[in-house]
Design brief:
Layout (H helix, E strand, L loop, with lengths): L6 H23 L17 H8 L3 H32 L5 H13 L2 H11 L9 H26 L2 H10 L4 H12 L1 H16 L3 H6 L7 H11 L1 H43 L1
Helix pairs in contact: 1-12, 2-12, 3-6, 3-9, 3-11, 4-6, 5-6, 6-9, 7-8, 9-12, 11-12
Length: 272
């Protein structure tokens, strides 16, 4: 019989406090009238949220950040997931080069990446455009999508599923979307969440590539951080809440899709 480790609950509680307390403090500061002379705020108000929503660029920057993150997630789905599937099924010799390529964005500072892209792509239509920003964010966020998908591919009997589907006459698209896809949906969803959260809060690439031509929410947050920390905290709370709700929505949709894909299999198994 295994003895329960008394230090484990203590560690979990400390970790939860370490993660939750800063978030709660930000939420509390965003509704505080003043909070610098006592342990708790001296009063509460929604004035900072009113100022945030009245700012002419708030909804624009919020929409720009959402569009940027969504397009980056879509680009990763179209590029990284098929590449990982091909590397694990038909081109095993490509696994090592792909692993190296997906590690490179962690070693290349975003400042260098942004300046290199701006210097190289000098075509007026592309230079400092949102399209170039999406491309830069896609390169930067590739590891966040590839690693969860690769782990999911390694966790299933990929070769057996792939060979069985090919024997039945399925093509590569049908295998990827209807057979392999449902089995790696958890990895795909994890990658989407990581990419979305990373790009939704991205500042450096947006600031250096597009600047004021395509201002995102983190850029507005930095501006208010220098002016009024209370309004900045309200922007942070709104951004965190939006990202959290969208993440929960993605998880819920993935679970619904997974249940629908498992239901026919359960019916067939019951009949047999």
């Amino acid at each position: 019989m295994n003895e329960r480790n008394p230090a484990k609950p203590v560690f979990l509680v400390l970790f939860a406090l370490y993660m939750i307390v800063p978030i709660l403090a930000t939420y509390l500061f965003s509704i505080a009238t003043r909070w610098d002379r006592s342990l708790l705020p001296e009063g509460y108000t929604l004035e900072w949220y009113a100022q945030t929503f009245q700012h002419p660029y708030f909804l624009i920057t919020l929409g720009n950040s959402f569009v940027l993150a969504t397009y980056t997630v879509a680009a990763n789905l179209l590029l990284v997931v098929p590449a990982a599937y091909l590397a694990y099924t038909r081109l095993p010799e490509a696994k090592l080069p792909i692993d190296v390529l997906t590690i490179l964005p962690f070693g290349i500072p975003r400042v260098i990446l942004a300046l290199a892209l701006v210097t190289l792509y000098t075509v007026p239509v592309i230079n400092r455009s949102p399209f170039l920003l999406v491309c830069a964010c896609t390169v930067f966020s590739m590891p966040y999508m590839y690693r969860p998908v690769a782990n999911s591919l390694e966790a299933i009997d990929l070769r057996t599923l792939n060979d069985a589907a090919m024997i039945q006459g399925a093509n590569a698209r049908q295998i990827l979307f209807h057979i392999i896809g449902p089995n790696i949906i958890n990895g795909v969803v994890s990658g989407c969440l990581l990419v979305f959260s990373a790009i939704f809060a991205e500042y450096t690439l947006a600031r250096l590539i597009t600047g004021a031509r395509f201002k995102t929410l983190p850029m507005l947050l930095v501006e208010f951080t220098r002016r009024d920390g209370r309004v900045a905290s309200s922007i942070s709370v709104i951004a965190f809440t939006v990202a959290l709700l969208l993440s929960l929505l993605i998880i819920a949709l993935a679970q619904i899709n997974q249940r629908r894909s498992e239901k026919p299999a359960a019916v067939i198994e019951k009949r047999t």
